[in-house]
Design a protein that fits this description.
By secondary structure, the chain is mostly helical. Among the domains are: 102 residues, no CATH class; 90 residues, no CATH class; 127 residues, no CATH class. The protein is built from 33 helices and seven strands. It has a seven-stranded mixed β-sheet, covered by helices on one side. The radius of gyration is 30 Å and the shape is elongated. The relative contact order is 0.07. The protein binds one DNA strand through helix 6, helix 8, helix 10, helix 12 and helix 14. Pfam families: DYW_deaminase, E_motif, PPR, PPR_2.
Length: 679
Amino acid sequence: MLFYAFKTLSPASSPKPSSLLFSDLMLPVLSPMPSSHLHLLSPSSPKPLFRSFSSLRTPSQTPTSVNNYNHLIQMLCKRGNLKQALDLLPHEPSPTQRTYEALILACVQRNSPGSAAVVHRHLSDDGFDQDPFISTKLVGMYSHFNALDDARNVFDKTSQKTIFLWNALLRALAVGDEGEEALLLFRDMVLVGIELDSCSYSFALKACVALRSCEVSAFERVREIHGHALRHGFNSRVHVATTLVDCYAKLGCVSYARRLFDRMLARNVVSWSAMIACYAKSNNPFDALKLFEEMMVLEPDIVPNSVTMVSVLQACAGLAALGQGKIVHAYVLRRRLDSILSVVNALITMYVKCGTLVSARRVFDGMNGRRDVVSWNSMISGYGIHGFGTEAIQLYQEMLHDGIAPSTLTFLSILGACSHVKFVQQGKTLFESMIKEHGITPRAEHYACMVDLLGRAGQLDEAIKIIEEMRIEPGPTVWGSLLGACRIHGHVELAERACSHLFELEPMNAGNYVLLADIYAGAKMWEEMINVKKLVETRGLQKVPGCSWIEVNRKMYSFVSVDFMDTHTEELHALLVQIVREMKGKGYIPNTDVVLYDLDQDEKEQILLGHSEKLAVAFGLINCRRGEVIRITKNLRLCEDCHSVTKFISKFARREIIVRDVNRFHHFRDGFCSCSDYW
DNA sequence: ATAGGGTTAG
């Protein structure tokens, strides 16, 4: 029985797969980013200081009018010269509301809590602590410093509480991750009979997402506030409706979010971006691109901005749609959005995940002087997942040399990089330095990296030691890493131990059961294997079907394994049969161990032949131009048999084949893989 | 006067 299917990722109704092109984006494919396009990234020259400041400061030159001082302080604040403005404050007999507003704003912009205290003291002395306008500004300021107690204090002490003041505190609590507190405040607002506005609803909804600790209750609260908004006619306001879409999306209700989005009476660029981001984040990159295309077609007046493009690039990265990504890159350059750091960072990740490390590096190199920690992390992880451990470590050191402080994600990237190339000692040293030199407390994910590094390298005892000495609860990531290592080394007992936790922590994750069954099969423990399979059945779990896809001429073709053949597939099948026949002549033995069904040898070989990755490779051989790299993406880990077949093909068809699996990239060339068969 | 969407790991 041969498993096979052919489908395109484009709408089923069209006879030919349509490309994801937008007339507006129809540009020649651009691969290198000319550095001249990055000139906008250089910092702008500083503005001159206020010229007459020093002369005005001396007491002998007292200004004739009070307004001069107020004006001067405000000017200095505007220029970001907070310190000089503060020095001037004691000389001013009667600062105005505007002056204090400017000072508060400057404290936020300069990120200076110390100056904030000085300003607060001054304005209290002047009696402005009862001014609801100033109080609103103060609450916003304290929110910026995450000083929620101070924010609440200001609120409590102000007797005349306007809706702005209520909203300011509500916002402060919501963005300060105090969802519970924010919702209590919202309840107070309703009970006291405050007339809510759309901002109140937006903030309260944001607070629900901040709850997250208990998603069920978060969902209930969103529904409550949604209902309230509905009864008071606020649900159709574009801000509220957009927030609702975003809330449901963040709580995992993607199709419901879409339904609300479709029902919106008016949408703006933020509404569209929120929905596109929802798809990009929830592993629906194709839907994200489709929606982006729709936005161009249906709403010619809405112009995508940098936030939109970050999500679109994320979707290209998720799909590994290089051709599409290049078009988006060209669009970004045309719209000058490459002056926005987050967009450039998203470009790096897009190229990394599309398998073109060189292009990613070119973008990274073009950023000289304007890289933040995200840019570095993206490039380091890029080297890591492409199997360039040495380069990843080197770049990490360059980053330190540049004075950029590494983050928790830097270490996840660099430890992952070590793991891919079996750099056990380097990984250990880096993990130590993370704690001791950089003061970063390891999270479960870091431990998972270490367990993966040690475990896959065969040091299972050390891996266990790491878990036992952890100061925090080892979550599913840690046990999952251990289980993966057990599969490689056929360690049944440890696998059982890992699974005893995993089946408890994530009972619905079919992957864990499959791995355990795989390990039992490897140890020829058939009875145990069958029991695990039964468990999967009784719990009603669905194995994630293997799926591979390939982009040809900017169209996506995806392959999954099903149990019938049709006319599309015969050509691919025939090609694979021929390849395998040749390989067998050269000593290839199909690795039927990976097939966990009770079938005879021939049937098992047939199933191997139908693995989605082989079909995608065959499709690539037929449809990609000679000399062109065949790029394939797979949703799971590569199986051993596909790995060896692809190695063979790379040599005898003289094709370079790059496969992205769920963990890393494999570059096949001349019969070898960049992973050195360690993955 | 307060407002809604986005960047890196696995």
